[in-house]
Amino acid sequence: MKVLEWNTAAFSLFLICHSLLFGQSLGHQIALYVHNKCPFPIWPATAPNTGHPVIADGGFYLPAGETQRIYAPWDWSGRIWARTGCNFASNWQPACETGDCDGRLACNGLIGTPPVTLVQLSLQADKSMPNFYDVSLVDGYNLPVAVTTKQISPKCTVGGCSKNLKNSCPAELQVLNRYGKIVACKSACLAFNLDSFCCRNEYGSPEKCKPSVYSKMFKAACPYYYSYAFDSPAPLVNCASNEYVIAFCPSSWGSEATSI
């Protein structure tokens, strides 16, 4: 009987400690609700910045209309993007039409092949400090995306696009799939690899690197995103929250408006 009493007490203590540790663990995480509002499946992917862990195995399948909740440490920084047109059961290389990471479903830290619309996150370990996030077209575009806190606030929202950028993408920037359909639009830097477009070397300052006709086209279609390296004012959002929503194709696919 004494042994049973001791075991019962020990088990109760274990449950209390487990509950406290589990609660502390959840308190040290940020929830990211990845929502696919596109009328087709996507394969969201994640890649950490140096020194940070891989989250959500680096990639997963997300059917149209579905939401996947993933977790990141509260001091995590990295990038999230959507891959499109993937077929991991074939011998195709790459496995995805856009955003491919060496043909893998779980990117496991690999960075996707541009051009992709890139969500960039920098979470802060100090909960009193805001988290920073933005959407970048510096390497190009494949899908519209919106980011906001779960409790939606205009000041905490990176909106979608007012136009379908693929419809207005110049021929020299277009990425076509095997059927000749435009699946992405390169940035001028990615397409031409010139210092003046990439804002490097003698053009490596805001004074020297100005918007190009291409970055202006990107900005007109997607005014809430970075259109080139020194986009000003910087479309960077900083809001404190434990929950964020990342919505791909955040409005009707035809108009790609800014509502989430």
TrEMBL record:
Q: Where found?
A: Secreted
Coiled-coil segments:
none
State the Gene3D superfamilies in the record. Thaumatin
Q: Which GO terms describe its cellular component?
A: extracellular region
Q: Which PROSITE patterns match?
A: THAUMATIN_2
Q: Which Pfam families match?
A: Thaumatin
The organism's superkingdom is given as Eukaryota
In the record, which residues are listed under signal peptide?
Answer: 1-27
* Disulfide bridges in this chain: C38-C249, C86-C96, C101-C107, C156-C239, C161-C222, C169-C185, C189-C198, C199-C209
InterPro entries in the record, alphabetically?
A: Osmotin/thaumatin-like_sf, Thaumatin
Q: Does the keyword Secreted apply?
A: yes
Q: What's the family? A: Belongs to the thaumatin family.
Protein name stated in the entry = Thaumatin-like protein
Q: Which organism is it from?
A: Dovyalis caffra
